[in-house]
Amino acid sequence: MDNLPLHHTKWNDRLAFDVALTLEGSGETVNEILSRHRIQPADLLGFNQDPVFLRKVDHYRGEIREKGLTFRLKARAQAEELLTTSWLLIHDAAVSPAVKADLIKSTVKWAGLEPKDNISTDGGGGGVKITINLGPNPQDSRTIDVTPTPTPMLEDDDGTYHADTDHPYDVAEHVS
User: Fold this and answer.
1) CA-based nearest residue to 1, from 84, 90, 103, 91
2) pLDDT higher than 90, residue 7
3) Which among 41, 33, 4, 31 has a CA at the least distance from the CA of 16?
């Protein structure tokens, strides 16, 4: 049974993974799966009617056949189980705020929800490329590339800085 706090399904990915292992001859017996997941045989028969469950089992079986039982696949199964522990710790009043913050940050990172850094390391800071078609022939089109260059900062007499507005942008026109 799904033991995650949200109870979004009657089964979890770990159950699907365990069933896939059993079907591929690498896992526990059906009775051991029933015992570990605290389900009845009728529950497992019901899950066999769920197309989402069947697709998940098929997916795991394919991975097991193609890649074998890799470390990464085992780690993913463990991580799924540890999310429940993480959830319980985050909502436990006895756990320090620092530990909760670390668990939340880790969960966001593992889920791939961290903001992406869009800062270019090569010094480029964007730019604009405009193509104007002046007729049906390809030779009639013009492409203008505008690449900004860093604007120099000038120091005033009072020690403050302002942008040098006389500094031009690099503009190159290329005929396509």
Assistant:
1) 84
2) no
3) 33
